[in-house]
Amino acid sequence: MPRLERIEYLFEPAGGGAIMRSMPNPIPTEAQQAELLTAARAAQHRAYAPYSKYQVGAAVLDDQGRIHAGCNVENAAYPEGVCAEASALSAMVLAGSTRARAVLVVGTGGAWVTPCGGCRQKLREFCAQDTPILTANDTTMGPRYTLAQLLPQSFGPDHLQQP
After folding, report:
1. pLDDT tens digits, 94-135
2. Which pTM was predicted?
3. Which structural domains are found in the chain, ordered by start?
4. Is 74 designated active site?
5. Below-70 pLDDT ranges, the chain
6. What is the pLDDT of residue 18?
7. Of 17, 8, 5, 82, nearest to 43 (Cα)?
8. Exactly one of 5, 35, 74, 85 is catalytic; which is it?
């Protein structure tokens, strides 16, 4: 598995938007991965998916070692729904963190679920390029990716840093 990065905040400029630099960080342990899976599966069972019947759960491991879970919430006006990954990121931010060290997404069906394009961009806001994105279903862990593999040549916060 690729090495993870932790983002260290150097200072908070007027108007917000902390300037960041990458620092090495240990890979999540097997125990942390198991906790992510448990949290994501629990969230998946709470998903509100009356239209698609496709329940998704996600869990994010933050830079403080805490896990934040989220589920998809559908709406009759389809574009107004919320993905599980976005829900988990919101929970992380609400808890006071803005850096994710690992993400796990769990879905059902034959194909492994990965974050949609919009969620990949949302993850880019809070994740380093080599952040592991883990997949699972109801019975087992699936393929493992990095954010860079899922969103190559991406645009992110570092592009907006002022000299």
Report:
1. 999 999 999 999 998 778 999 999 999 999 999 999 999 999
2. 0.82
3. 28-160 (3.40.140.10)
4. no
5. 1-26
6. 41
7. 82
8. 85
